[in-house]
Amino acid sequence: MEYFDNFDNGKHADYYISSEVKLPKLYEVFLIRDEKTPDDFISYIICDLFHKDSASANKMTNVINKKNRVSCGKYTRDVAETKQAFIMNLAHENSYPLVCVLKEGKRNVI
Q: What is the reported pTM?
């Protein structure tokens, strides 16, 4: 911690400035594979919601086919939960059993 003296209009004020900045926790968004959701739908979600190009979406779709899940990115909690809700609603509207889960990460400190 650094210590600063501030003199303002003859009034003395002490300020302590922390040298440690805590960043918000990031949540990793995963798509979980099932046998009924078509690859085209998964690619559409990856391209549209996670802003990946079609080549990246195809690679990620291949990963989900091999490992039954794929990480789509890390986001703050509110963004991750919004993406999860959107995916789950879209899958439900199209009668696909696709599942999206979040994994809490560690808080980074600068």
A: 0.78
Cα 37 from Cα 64, distance rounded (Å)? 11
Which DSSP string corresponds to 18-70?
A: -S--BPPPEEEEEEE--SSS-HHHHHHHHHHHH---HHHHHHHHHHHHHHSEE
What CATH code is assigned to 23-104?
3.30.1390.10
* Residue 27 to residue 75: CA distance in whole angstroms: 5
Distance CA 14, CA 5 (A): 5
**CA 28 to CA 97: how far, in whole Å?**
20
CA 46, distance to chain mean position in Å, is: 13
Kindly report, residue by residue over 43-76, the tens digit of the pLDDT: 999 999 999 999 999 999 999 999 999 999 999 9
